[in-house]
Design a protein that fits this description.
The protein has 644 residues and is an alpha/beta fold. Keywords: Cell membrane, Kinase, Membrane, Phosphoprotein, Transferase, Transmembrane, Transmembrane helix, Two-component regulatory system. It is a multi-pass membrane protein. Its main location: membrane.
């Protein structure tokens, strides 16, 4: 180029939008159109051939993907900057583009002046983004920034305040002692333990809280980096004493401080008493066994199950009740283990005093004591359980064939529904949005030529109408085919649905994703559509202020719970009326997937909708993704190589 104009390449697979952008750039005195492209492959080639300063690129074009194209352009033409222009504004798409180096992201329907300004800003190596995308994309960045705070950044008052807040929630008594040995902080446990108020403890010394005989030992706790616990007595405000355990440490901060931890051992003794009561009140037989396999204690249910008096059992080997089985070996393995032992269960055979045997479920749990490691055995007679299990297994065999047929039907049904939604979304993206975008650009070019204020106002209103149409069409595309669902993210798709509800109605939401398993595609689509139907009911009828959505893993399936604080209703009365198809659809979708649905509500108390579907092995006909020739992101265009 012989002048100082900014060289621009336009890449868009829709002819109307491409031509409108070309005319818009040609009309600006500081810009020069140097190349056109109709797919990602041509966009990279045009950038290499013409070496523009800016490439304005449609995200969804055939022959490649946008992130790879941006990366290729930045690698081969480092001076070029890429501004993305797309009908889609999902957070994942935007963040993926920014991550590979795009200098801006605009949604189709953005005013022409903003498009021109974004091109000029990109040439100056400045960033641009449509305002409607900024808030949605900034939130995960803010969360990431908060999560990236490092421990060493918490210095000064922030560090000390964080420590004190943490110590305030400690399960034991905590004292913070200053450099002069005076108490500066005492948590609620200490105040309750010693009977002092917060102001009364300030400026006291640790030795004031122990009897005279322990004062020297208490002073030795202060200022050390770490001390082992010491058994002493505490002295309350009223002069009474109680058994306690003291340990000391050092608190990081701007000046040295000591921290003292105090545990009331009288509470421990009460806990021991409660433990004995728990064992005695258990509905199952419980025994306490030492590492040699000798019975140390037994409850009354042990007497009833095995037919022995408990006094007769004390000191006997546990093999008398559970003979010829690898139980003693399991107990001895814990004795010398350096790691914290973990309990487990075993199915063994028990023998009663009359020598009759029975199948037993034995839970083996370690119990650390001052005398060493003991074991708690919980024994349950599972004769009836095994009989019921046999009957259940036979029933399950009969149900397996029916379940496979149901799964196949569900797969075909969901596949057909989602495929139809995908085709509709593709038609809207490839035809309607592109035409309206081109019309909007043409309209804005015409407005710039008008001088009559009344005519300009008419054009402004018409432009706003077109923008509203584009916004609604983009939302319709999301409703028909959420991008997060396509990427296998059920929680992301539901978050988009809830965010739309919050924006349009003001209903706030909380989404909890505790689902660890990855559902098959058809099951994920069914869960999303069922939850969508429930949220439509919240939006239309509940008049709620908040809604809480949970995704939980339960019994090899997914449990979805949707709770709102709306007006509520009488389910029996409403569901019996004609025309209330939403509730029936929720129940029918869950049932056809082999699951269940439960709805609880009453007037004035909000509504809870719960449904569960299994996450079993997908059927033989899984939900497939359309190939590149059918995808709305990759329309099949004839090969072209237009030049400006």
């Amino acid at each position: 180029m012989g002048d100082n104009r900014i060289a621009v390449v336009v890449a868009d697979d829709d002819p109307a939008v491409r031509e409108a952008l070309a005319d818009l750039i040609d009309s600006h005195p500081d810009l020069e159109l140097v190349g056109l492209a109709i797919n990602h492959e041509q966009a990279v080639r045009a950038a290499v051939d013409h070496r523009p300063q800016v490439v304005i690129m449609d995200v969804h074009m055939p022959r490649g993907d946008a992130p790879s194209s941006v990366q290729a352009i930045r690698d081969q033409v480092p001076e070029a900057r890429v501004v993305a222009l797309s009908a889609h504004g999902e957070r994942e798409t935007v963040l993926n583009m920014l991550a590979v180096g795009a200098s801006g992201y605009l949604v189709k329907g953005t005013p022409a002046e903003e498009i021109l300004d974004a091109i000029i800003r990109a040439a100056r190596d400045q960033f641009s983004m449509s305002a409607e995308l900024l808030a949605d994309c900034a939130e995960p960045l803010r969360r990431a920034e908060r999560a990236s705070w490092r421990f060493e950044d918490l210095v000064g008052n922030r560090l000390e305040d964080s420590y004190l807040e943490l110590l305030g929630h400690a399960p034991c008594g905590v004292l913070v002692v200053g450099p002069r040995g005076r108490i500066e902080y005492a948590n609620a446990h200490i105040r309750h333990m010693f009977g002092y108020g917060s102001a009364e403890l300030r400026d006291k010394r640790l030795r004031d809280l122990v009897p005279e005989r322990y004062r020297t030992a208490s002073e030795q706790l202060i200022g050390r980096v770490f001390t082992t616990p010491s058994a002493m007595s505490g002295r309350r405000r009223d002069g009474s004493e109680f058994p306690a355990q003291f340990s000391g440490g050092h608190l990081q901060g701007r000046q040295p401080r000591g921290v003292v931890f105090v545990a009331d051992l009288s509470q421990l003794r009460a806990a021991e008493s409660r433990f004995r009561q728990l064992i005695e009140s258990s509905p199952d037989a419980m025994l306490i066994v030492d590492t040699g396999g000798r019975i140390q204690a037994a409850n009354h249910r042990t007497e009833a199950l095995f037919g022995y008096d408990r006094d007769h059992l004390i000191g006997r080997a546990v093999e008398a009740l559970l003979p010829d089985q690898p139980l003693t070996v399991s107990l001895r393995e814990w004795d010398d283990s350096l790691e914290e032992p973990v309990g487990h269960s075993m199915e063994l055979v028990g023998r009663r005093s009359d020598t009759k045997q029975f199948p037993a479920d034995v839970s083996i749990s370690p119990l650390r004591t001052e005398e060493g490691l003991l074991t708690v055995l919980t024994v349950r007679d599972i004769t009836e359980v095994q009989r019921a299990q046999f009957v259940l297994e036979r029933s399950l065999e009969l149900l397996e064939v029916t379940d496979r047929d149901r799964q196949a039907l569900l797969s075909h049904l969901v596949h057909a529904q989602e495929a139809e939604r995908g085709r509709i979304a593709a038609d809207i993206h490839d035809d309607t949005i592109q035409v309206i975008t081109a019309a909007s650009l043409r309209l804005q070019q015409l407005r710039r030529r008008l001088r009559d204020p009344d005519e300009q106002r008419v054009m402004d209103k018409l432009d706003e109408t077109l923008k509203l149409s584009l916004s609604r069409l983009r939302q319709l595309i999301f409703d028909l085919r959420p991008s997060s669902l396509e990427h296998g993210c059920l929680a992301g798709a539901l978050r988009g649905l809830l965010e739309q509800m919050r924006t349009e109605t003001g209903v706030t939401y909380r989404l909890e994703d505790r689902l660890t398993a990855h559902p098959p595609a058809e099951t994920m689509a069914l869960i999303y559509r069922t939850a969508q139907e429930a949220l439509v009911n919240v939006r239309k009828h509940a008049h709620a202020k908040t809604v809480h959505v949970q995704l939980l893993g339960l019994d090899d399936g997914c449990l979805v719970r949707i709770v709102d604080d709306g007006e509520g209703y009488n389910p029996l009365e409403v569901e019996s009326r004609p025309g209330h198809l939403g509730l029936s659809l929720i129940q029918e979708r869950a049932q056809i997937a082999g699951g269940w649905c439960r709805i609880e509500s009453e007037p004035g108390s909000g509504t809870t909708v719960e449904f569960w579907v299994p996450l079993g092995t997908p059927p033989d006909a899984p939900l497939t993704t359309p190939d590149s020739s059918d995808s709305p992101d990759s329309p099949d265009f004839p090969e072209e190589d237009p030049q400006p």
